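Support reply, case 0932

Customer input (verbatim):
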Amino acid sequence: MSQRNNDPVKKSAQGALNRFKMEVANELGIQDYENIDKGNLSSRENGYVGGNMTKKMVAFAEQAMSQGQTGAINNAAKTDFPGQNKNN
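Our regenerated output:
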């Protein structure tokens, strides 16, 4: 049975990720997203926020790679593989 973990890869990035989430929500017209009861939003609205965050992060990584900055991307986060113990 697989375990899901929504913890950030870098704990120090949590604040930046939350700010990024609020920026994306505001761009999508969802005001005060931080204080909204997410259960009152549709799955589609919540999905748009996460999906657009992912889209922007991928675009950023693609741009960095096209400029030869692969080292920064490779060092940013290690890839977790199924069954891998995170404590190693």
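We compared this against your earlier run and they match. Two observations from our side: Residues 13-75 form one domain. Helices lie at 14-27, 43-66, 70-76. Please reopen the case if you see a mismatch on your end.
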